[in-house]
Amino acid sequence: MAKNKIKRFEENLTFSSLIQPSFEELFKREHPMRGRWNSHFFKSDRAIVLELGCGRGEYTVALAKLYPNKNFVGVDIKGARLWRGARTVEEEAISNAAFARFRIEFIESIFGPNEVSEIWITFPDPFVRKAKKRLTSSLFLKRYQNIIEDGGVVHLKTDSGYLYNYTLALLQQSGVEILYSTENLYGEGEVGSDNATLSVKTRYESLFSAKGIAIKYLSFRLRKGVEIVEPTWEEELYLDHST
Length: 243
Prior knowledge:
The structure is a single chain. By secondary structure, the chain is an alpha/beta fold. The chain has one domain (2-20, 41-241): Rossmann fold (3-Layer(aba) Sandwich), CATH 3.40.50. Helix content is 37%, strand content 21%. The chain is built from eleven helices and eight strands. It has an eight-stranded mixed sheet with strand order 1-4-3-2-5-6-8-7, sandwiched between helices. Strand 5, helix 7 (138-147) and strand 6 form a beta-alpha-beta unit. Helix 1 crosses helix 5. The two termini are 27 Å apart.
């Protein structure tokens, strides 16, 4: 396994579809790609969609194939996982998909104001005991507000009832416009079967579904100037549903 990881890390360096900025390039700095993804990387003027915590990149790749009129960037910190997605993009010459390896707390260092049109957050760690690390916490949503266009849509897919209920409470308390919410995405046939985007499944999502774990889904609009606040909610009610 260690040899495979080393081999993948080495191969990652050869992929033009994968950028790997160092900590020093992002910490309290603006990366050269910031605000220039379309002009310098994709060389096309299309809406940019992010997948945060993309893992192997199956969702990023699938969405890029479904929507050739948009540009997609999958973000994760795990280089060995990103290798799979980046290699697929290289092998299949997918021109509207890319990957970036960095910690998501630095997202404002690499994407500029209004540069992103849409964000997908797919099966993140719910961080039951560490609210500030949740990718749907007020801290992270404020970061997304700074890079997404006004009214840009954010999607959350999760197997965690805890994270779903936390996020729903946060959005409701902050007065954020919720577009859709369900605790059982594929139990509502019209969504799972008719919506091509939602029907795309990651490897982990397929495993969860096979075990009978309901997939929760939320979509909402992020508006400029809306104050995002942590929710006041009955947290203990959901602790048994954190996996």
